[in-house]
Structure formats: C-alpha cells, structure tokens
Design brief:
Helix content: over 70%
Distance between the termini: 15 Å
Number of helices: 18
Low-confidence stretches: none
Number of domains: 1
Radius of gyration: 22 Å
Shape: globular
Largest sheet: none
Strand content: under 5%
Number of strands: 0
Mean pLDDT: 84
Structural class: mainly alpha
Oligomer: single chain
Length: 481
C-alpha cells in the first residue's frame, strides 16, 4: 500500500504541478490585477458565500461513498443512480438557501446574477467530486488524477484566449471569469459521469425513497463535519466584507494571501484524496497502518515547513512580485496566513485517518470547537486589525484542530511513530530554522536567497532521513517490477 500510495501520489502531484500553479499565478492572479482588488473582493466574498452552504449539495455523500465503495465495490451500481438523484434534489434546497442568504446580506441585482452562476458552479463541482469519489474508491487513481486537473486545464485554455489572444473581442470582467468556470465544470462533469457509467452496470434517474432516507441517516455526521469546516475556513472573508467600512478592499487584500494558501492546500488535499480509500480498505482488512501514516505525514509536513519558513522570510518580496496593488499590509497578512499551511497539512493526514476509521463524532466535536474559536476571534480581531485579524484567527483555529486530530489519531488507532524519526525531525527543525535566518542575511537577489533556503531545507531533510531517498527508490523499483 505504501508503494501504491507513493507512485500514484507522484503521478497526481506531477499533473497538478503542470496545471494548477499556472491557473493560480497565471490566470486567477492576473484577473485580480486587471480588474482591481476591490472588484475581485466582491467576487471573493460571493464565492465564499456560495461555499458556505455547499454542504447542502453533498451532506457528506462524497466521503461516505468513497469509504463504502472502497470497502464494497459491488455497491457502485446501487449507489450511483440513487446518489445522483439525491444530489439533484439537494441542489434545489441549496440554491434556495444561498439566494436567501444573499438577500439578507443585502446584495444588489448585479451581485445576485454573479451569485446564481457561482451556485451553478458549486453544484457542478460537487457533482464532479462525487463522481471522482467512485473512481478513486475503485483505485483507478491515474484516471482520477487526470480528471482532477481537467477543469483547471479547460479554464486556463478559455481564459488564456481572453487575456492574451482575444480574437473574440470579449471584454474581461468578473462575470466572464465566472462563466469560463461554468463551461469548464460542465465539460468535466460530463466526462466524469460517463467514466463512472462505464464501470457501473446501470443508471436510472428515479427516486428510491427508502434508499434516500437510509443514506441520509448514515451521511449526516459527514454533512455536519463538512459544514462546520466550511464555516471556520470560509466565513472570515464574509465577515471582513460586512464588518469593515472598507470591507470590499480588505476582502481583496485577504484574497491575495488566501489564494496562495488555497493553492498550496490543494496539494495537501491530493494526499487526502489518495489516502481516504487506501486507509479505508486497510482498516477494513485490519492491516497495519502505522508505516503508511508515518510515511505520508513526514512526506507532506516536511515540504510544508520548508515552504512556509521561506515564504515568511520573503513575504514582502513575494507579494510585490505577484500583485500590482499591495497596500502596505498585504505582506503582513501573507506572512501570518501562510503559516496556516502547516496545521492544514497535518489535518489532511490525520483528519482523513479518523474519517476512514469512522470517528465522525470526534471530528465533529473538534470542528464545532474550531467554529466557536474562529467566530469569536474574527469578531474580536477584524474590527481593529482588519485582514490581519482574520489571518490570526485562521492560524489559531487550524492549530487547535491539528493538535486535537493528532491526539485522537494516536489514541484511538494506537498509531506509533518511530522515536528515531521523531527525534530527527526535531533536529531538522532546529537546524533549518536557525540556518534560514543566516541565509536571509546574505546580501543577494531575494529569488536566489529564497531558492537557497528551499534547497537547503530539502538537503537537511535528506541528511536526517526524514525524506528517505533509498526508500523512495525502492518503492519506484518495486512498482516497475
């Protein structure tokens, strides 16, 4: 399983590195620079509102389906038709509630039009994620990997024409940006549907009331968890825009840093996407999981630490490179918010492990506590500190979640890490952090300094065998054999 996980992870990361960074830095960032942070701030706020209630589109069906199909492949035909019908019904409820929230928030007609298309995008994305959960549960990881980047690839193609070769004479605005996403999501959903249909015996669009009620009864813990996580990870942008006189501008400033954090988090999410079906099957078969947990955790957390430390030291230079409008505080917001990437990476490992083990009740208690902490901190810190206050609230919330998920993973699943590896990472942290400050003092171009710190970080990781090259080579050779 360690070999299977690593080789497929390598393929998945390679595909995502080829596509998603270009989307984030070459398209999404350029759009914000061209239309301005204030206008983009409106989009960012509406986008987060559409995400806030998107649990109603899923109610935990995706994670529930992934775990169950991974353990019982024969359920695919039964689940496929019924869950697609259920998701269509849920989409109607989600649309009504999200539009009502927009009305209560006082959005104008133009903002409502944007919100409607963002709602449609969320439905299509939710459908894609459900369809992909079937593909990954069947352990067709390479197919799932290609689907995972298809929507971004299509968006890049559409927006590249508009941004750099606009022979259609389309004027760039936030509406065009949203419409391009709709087209890309629709095509990806269409392709994904027929891939799953190929592996399913049949598909019939009909309401099976007993199945729907039984499934909802089993999935509600997943639904509560996703909803609570959405609140403490997305509600901050809405509060910034609503609480401050210059809320649109501050939301745009926060979006500058959040974009980079979200892009990095997508790579951590790749680990979770592969690990959930693998953990689920291993736990179901009562196989030992300690080695895979340790291997995946250190494989993810080490580059996370390296990149975060480098980014904090060069936060001002990174923000000035990426954005035209920096407003003075942008780099400060970034240097705080980017630290959140470390606990987020940890959560994607141990949260996935607890989900695979069925410890949804524990996860929901943790998420509920995180929501309370996040809202209290945001209401307290946003008025005096603006976007910086939201960044402080974000890192505090994620650290709280990471510590508790780590604790319960070790306690409930009796996970044990080798003492040698734990000692090694402690030495790595001490050596790396001290040496980075020395490198930072070298008078050279910041890009060279930034690159040196990252290279040195990986050298330290290899020296202390936190990332074991010999093991990686063995896994690759084993796969080839």
């Amino acid at each position: 399983m360690k070999k299977n996980f690593f080789v497929n992870l390598l393929f998945l990361i390679t595909l995502n590195l080829l596509v998603k960074p270009f989307w984030v830095l070459g398209i999404d960032r350029v759009v914000q620079n061209k239309i301005g942070s204030a206008d983009y701030g409106i989009y960012f706020t509406l986008f987060n509102l559409s995400i806030l209630f998107n649990i109603l589109l899923d109610l935990g069906l995706t994670n529930f389906n992934n775990r169950n199909i991974a353990q019982h492949k024969q359920l695919l035909s039964k689940y496929f038709s019924n869950i697609v019908v259920l998701k269509t019904m849920l989409a109607i409820i989600y649309t009504a509630i999200t539009l009502t929230a927009g009305f209560i928030a006082g959005y104008d007609l133009m903002q409502f039009k944007l919100l409607i298309f963002l709602i449609l995008n969320q439905f299509l994305l939710s459908l894609i994620l459900y369809l992909r959960s079937n593909i990954s549960a069947l352990h067709f990881f390479k197919t799932d990997s290609m689907i995972s980047v298809l929507d971004r690839f299509l968006m890049i193609a559409i927006m590249s024409v508009i941004l750099w070769n606009n022979f259609l004479n389309i004027k760039l605005n936030i509406s065009v940006f949203i419409y391009s996403q709709t087209i890309a999501y629709f095509i990806t959903a269409f392709v994904s549907f027929f891939i799953v249909l190929h592996h399913s015996e049949t598909f019939k669009f009909r309401i099976n009331k007993p199945f729907l009620l039984s499934t909802l009864k089993q999935t509600y813990p997943y639904a509560i968890l996703v909803f609570l996580m959405s609140i403490h990870s997305r509600f901050d942008a809405i509060l910034i825009e609503r609480l401050l006189p210059d809320g649109k501008l501050q939301a745009g400033i926060y979006a500058q840093s959040f974009r980079l954090l979200d892009a990095l988090s997508q790579f951590s999410l790749l680990f979770a996407a592969l690990l959930l079906p693998i953990f689920s099957r291993m736990i179901f078969k009562k196989q030992k999981i300690d080695d895979l947990v340790e291997f995946s955790f250190f494989l993810l957390i080490t580059p996370s630490i390296i990149f975060v430390v480098s980014s904090v030291l060069y936060s001002n230079e990174i923000i000035e490179l990426l954005y035209h409008d920096t407003y003075g505080v942008s780099s400060k917001v970034f240097s705080i918010l980017i630290i959140t990437f470390i606990p987020i990476s940890s959560n994607y490992i141990f949260g996935t492990l607890l989900t695979a083990n069925g410890n949804l009740k524990k996860l929901n208690y943790i998420a509920a506590g995180a929501v309370i902490i996040n809202i209290v901190l945001n209401l307290t810190l946003i008025p005096p500190l603006k976007a910086q206050g939201a960044a402080v609230a974000a890192i505090s919330t994620q650290l709280f979640t990471a510590v508790l998920q780590l604790f319960f993973s070790f306690r409930l699943l009796k996970i044990k890490f080798s003492q040698k590896k734990t000692f090694s990472i402690a030495l790595f942290l001490i050596l790396f952090i001290i040496s980075t400050f020395l490198i930072r003092k070298i008078e050279t171009d910041w890009k060279i300094g930034f690159s040196l710190i990252i290279i040195w970080g990986f050298i330290c990781a290899f020296l202390f065998k936190i990332i074991n090259i010999k093991m990686i080579i063995r896994l690759l050779k084993g796969y080839e054999n």
